[in-house]
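Input (structure):
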């Protein structure tokens, strides 16, 4: 878990630095009408953090296996209108949620990391996978942010 926590913290620092260096036009430019801008991708990462913080917290006391509820990511990006949000607000919220997630990740034991989860397709895994996958998902989208022109 330590590697994931370190990667999470590194991604927060590097992404804030990168996003803060972008022009407002660059942050809002969409590579295609149906694709997200850099700002919207960051908004998606906020939604992901909100949903995963809830998952990581609830699994501590919920009946096992913990059922993973999907969320409608495209709808959340639109409803929250991340395209027109202030960058500093988005960065502050994203960092705060992920710092809380990092604290929660650090508090886990081998026993809690083995808590079972069940996905909508009925496949199963554990909390360790879910937390590690969360950081990998974040990294994937951060790389996407850097590629959006």
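Output (sequence):
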């Amino acid at each position: 878990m330590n590697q994931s926590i370190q990667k999470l913290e590194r991604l927060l620092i590097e992404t804030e630095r990168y996003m803060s260096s972008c022009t407002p036009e660059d942050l809002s430019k969409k590579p295609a009408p149906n694709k997200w801008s850099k700002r919207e991708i960051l908004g998606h990462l906020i939604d992901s953090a909100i949903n995963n913080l809830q998952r990581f917290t609830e699994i501590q006391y919920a009946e096992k296996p913990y059922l993973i509820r999907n969320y409608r990511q495209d709808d959340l990006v639109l409803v929250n209108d991340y395209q027109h949000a202030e960058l500093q607000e988005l960065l502050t919220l994203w960092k705060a949620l992920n710092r809380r997630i990092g604290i929660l990740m650090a508090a886990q034991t081998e026993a809690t990391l083995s808590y079972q989860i069940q996905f909508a397709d009925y496949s199963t895994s554990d909390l360790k996978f879910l937390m590690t996958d969360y950081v990998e998902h974040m990294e994937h989208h951060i790389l996407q942010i850097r590629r959006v022109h």
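Notes: The first helix runs from residue 2 to 21. The mean pLDDT is 96.
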